[in-house]
Amino acid sequence: MNDKVILVTGGSRGIGRAIALQAGTQGATVVVNYQSNEDAARDVVKQITDAGGAATAMRADIANTDDVNTMFQAIKEQYGRLDVLVNNAGITRDKLVMRLTDEDWDSVINTNLGGAFRCCRAVAPLMLKQKEGVIVNIGSVIGTAGAAGQANYSAAKAGLVGLTKSLARELGSRNIRVNAVCPGFIDTDMTQILKPEQREAAIKQVPLGRLGHPDDIASVVMFLCSPGAAYIHGTVITVDGGLFI
Ligand code: NAP
Fold first, then answer.
1. Of the residues 13, 138, 142, 144, which should be mutated to test ligand 1's pocket, given the most ligand atoms within 8 Å of the CB?
2. How far apart are CA 238 and CA 229, in angstroms?
3. Over 90: is that where the pLDDT of 193 sits?
4. In ligand 1, which atom is closest to the CA atom of 212?
5. Which atom of ligand 1 is the closest one to the Cα of 189?
6. What is the SS3 assignment for 203?
7. Fewer Cβ in 10 A, N or C end of the chain?
8. Which residues contact 158 (CB under 8 A, 6 or more apart)?
9. Going by CA atoms, what residue is nearest to atom 31 of ligand 1?
10. CB neighbours of residue 157 within 10 Å
């Protein structure tokens, strides 16, 4: 990752934080995007810079077009390039379909799918000009398996696969690789909302017998950014401990 500039949306916590830290450790200059948790984003930046790396925190709500465009303008002005975009930021608003409000539906679609779209749209001209780039979208196994109480989340993550494959077809000939990584149950703030008995039930479903660690996802993302993955394109990689074998 030496000399590479990477943007991780939702880099302040959980999986995004692990991706930012691994990228920083491997020599990348890391832009840590966050929505509201400035302290957490600054902590990630501090860990990277304390270890001798380079990083900066950038606030932008990826559900907001102006915020996203302003963030990419700032990246262009500060670094002049962006080698890797990781569309990681995401939210849940879980309810059974009959109780889902328009707001529950719209906010999840607009953040988890719309946010990735906005960032891809903003980065495409930059990567086309560079004649290279890597985009990794963080989906979810729920996008293909579905889950009761997560229709909005599942629809957004399924859409992310369509976005990934279409973009891969649009950009592949220009040396821009686009892939998706779909985690299973990962131990982050997002899964902290599970009650202890739900957590135990989730673990029982996983053949490897544990929740995933954010680093389990980050290391796959790092591989997809590396020259070793030069021929991996338009692919969806599941990282779920065998949950949906
Ligand atoms: P998390 O711990 O809840 O962290 C979410 C991150 O996204 C935070 O950094 C948050 O920023 C950021 N974010 C949320 N809304 C945003 C917005 N509108 N604009 C910019 N940033 C925003 O979540 P996680 O578990 O690490 O999940 C990361 C990704 O993995 C998500 O896309 C999620 O759907 C996916 N995933 C997670 C699991 C799992 O089991 N954890 C499984 C499958 C897929 P702030 O800190 O500022 O709030």
1. 13
2. 15
3. no
4. 40
5. 2
6. helix
7. C
8. 143, 144
9. 90
10. 26
The answer to whether residues 87 and 120 touch, using CB atoms and an 8 Å cutoff, is yes
pLDDT tier for residue 182 given thresholds of 50, 70 and 90: very high
Dist CA 213 CA 62 (whole Å): 25
Nearest to 218 by CA among 1, 10, 17, 12: 17
DSSP string, 47-110: HHHHTT-EEEEEE--TT-HHHHHHHHHHHHHHHS--SEEEE---------GGG--HHHHHHHII
Burial 20-35 (b: 16+ CB within 10 A, else e): bbbbbbbebbbbbbbb
> Is 221:1 a contact under the CB 8 Å cutoff?
no
In the chain, the domains with their CATH numbers are 5-238 (3.40.50.720)
